[in-house]
Amino acid sequence: MVHNIAGPSCRLKAIGRISKPFFTGLLQVILVAVFLLWLLDTGAEAMNYRWQWYRIPQYLWFFEDGEWFPAELLEGLRVTLQISAVSLLLTLAIGLVTALLRVSGSVIGRGVSWGYVELIRNTPLLVQIYLLYFVFGPVLGLERFTTAVLALSLFQGAYTAEIFRAGLTSVDRGQFEASNSLGLCALDSYRFVILPQVIKRILPPLTNEAVSLVKNSSIVSVMAIFDLTTEGRNIVADTAMPFEVWFTVAGIYLVVTLTLSGLAAWLAYRLDTPSH
């Protein structure tokens, strides 16, 4: 009986926990968007600017020979998602390995990981991209896509490493000793005992890093990669519609990051991650 009464209540709490960040963020975005639209409309009237929103759909999709095809902006979004997805996987791998080196007993490992984190965190991402693209890329024979993924992964990996390190150091020492007493090797100890606890604790900051990575992917447009930002810039150059195009690009980025936040909230629910 207790289970039957508590079931719907728990489900409602779970639904609220998942949907609350999304709808709260969406409400804030709508309020800010309404204010910005009012501000821009007032400014446009002062500049005698004519809105041309009716031209935007042709840069999202087009209809030809009985089929719908993605236009420039959606093609750019596809490239952005490809770069972000590959970079995110590589970022997690770099961050985890670097964090394990930071907490290891190896002096060389700690020194290398510390140097990497400090070097990346204290230099601008744009400078790192230029160095990889113009200096190391030609020497190593890296393509633009590979260079972009590598630059983003190295940059975000440094911050992610510190998040992993904080998660590792927060695990009670007794968990390591208990793993050893069970006869688990180091790999199995981290795989079955330590890392599941770490992931639960660091999921919120990891989500922030993932969102930051998606937004930072726009900087790779300096390498002439036809991502969403580059496509937007090209359309602005051809049409002289800066407001309509950049607002559309920002809206697409917003949809991607809000979706990512929603997935992270769902994952937090599945892992029963503490909300505060």
TrEMBL record:
A Gene Ontology molecular function term of the record: transmembrane transporter activity
Residue span(s) of domain ABC transmembrane type-1: 77-264
Localization per record: Cell inner membrane; Cell membrane
Transmembrane segments: 21-40, 79-103, 124-142, 245-269
Principal cellular location given in the protein's record: membrane
Keywords: Amino-acid transport, Cell membrane, Membrane, Transmembrane, Transmembrane helix, Transport
Topology class, membrane: Multi-pass membrane protein
A GO cellular component entry from the record: ATP-binding cassette (ABC) transporter complex
GO BP annotation list: amino acid transport
Entry keyword annotation includes Transport: yes
PANTHER family per UniProt: GLUTAMINE TRANSPORT SYSTEM PERMEASE PROTEIN GLNP, MEMBRANE COMPONENT OF AMINO ACID ABC TRANSPORTER
Entries under NCBIfam families matching the protein: HEQRo_perm_3TM (TIGR01726)
Family the UniProt entry places it in: Belongs to the binding-protein-dependent transport system permease family. HisMQ subfamily.
Function: Part of the binding-protein-dependent transport system for glutamine; probably responsible for the translocation of the substrate across the membrane.
Name the record gives this protein: Putative glutamine transport system permease protein GlnP
Naturally occurring in which organism (per UniProt): Photobacterium gaetbulicola Gung47
Lineage: Bacteria, Pseudomonadati, Pseudomonadota, Gammaproteobacteria, Vibrionales
